[in-house]
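Entry for S-adenosyl-L-homocysteine complex. Fields follow.
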Amino acid sequence: MQKQHIAMYDELIDKLRKNQELSKDEYLILIQNRKKCSDYLFKNSTEVREKVYGKDIYIRGLIEFTNYCKNDCLYCGIRRSNKCAERYRLDKEEILNSACQGYNLGFRTFVMQGGEDGYYTDEILVDIIKSIKEKYPDCAITLSLGERSFESYKKLKEAGADRYLLRHETASKSHYEKLHPKEMSFDNRVNCLKNLKKLGYQVGAGFMVGSPFQTEENLADELIFLKKLKPQMVGIGPFIPHKDTPFKNENAGSVELTLFMLGLIRLTLPNVLLPATTALGTIDPLGREKGIKAGANVLMPNLSPVGVRKKYMLYDNKICTGDEAAQCVECLKNRIAKTGCKIVVSRGDYKEN
Ligand code: SAH
């Protein structure tokens, strides 16, 4: 009986491997029985990653340029109601300095991430994007600035932005409403993702694993949602409570469930760019290495000036907030070498096939 069951889970994984679609119920069976089939999943997910991207791991230099935010997401440490957060903004020169340091360390993608900060108008952002592109024409720019209008996304794309990360946070509207205040809208967030795709960005969606009220059924829905949206990137990481938010007493998401979801995402979208995130490295000292071994192929170390790093605290105990970028890159190179993969100097674009 036991063996028959295990054979059934492996068959579902084989089905995914052959690029056949799974139903929500089939995904749910795998998620519920993950302990019995995770080894087989990871064997397949790493093989698929290697088939598409070889042993190359892409690095993205993350520039966290503002922690001002007009939103009040219940889970996030830089939510507007958090009066304990010490706010900062980087100016153009500081952003360009971070990019310069990153370029010299081998980064060929810069990710500008921040809260939804009205200070950065289209005009200011267009100027910064153009300046980075002018100086580093061989680099890609990824933006992660939250929800903006179609026109705004269009201007930023025309200025030279290549990619956009906007996690949908959860694929379930009712779950979304438990994680966000009333004035925020699931439909608008998904609409933003569609607009970004229309404009030709390489688009990244994503969600937190183990966020409050999340069920295993929600996680099965994530995979159905992703299969339909077909984003080029998917960012997932465990939810981690932040001490100055309404979710301060909630449990963090687990490493093993995050890894299992990474494996399923790799098989569902074989070519996807999939980071082993800082949050995963925060709840487990070997989290990022384990993420790579589950099928991830991207790392996003911090390039922000050390002086502001502790202020971009989305969750408690975030790692690498005291290290210089050069230290982070050295450390990651050593860690990744132990997984049998290697960090490469490359823009690391999405491979169509
Ligand atoms: N303002 C941008 C960037 C948000 S920060 C935007 O709206 O896209 C990047 C990601 O950090 C968020 O999308 C969220 O998924 C994650 N995050 C925020 N708070 C977190 C927490 N407490 N634990 C884990 N991840 C968190």
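NOTE: The CA atoms of residues 207 and 294 lie 17 Å apart.
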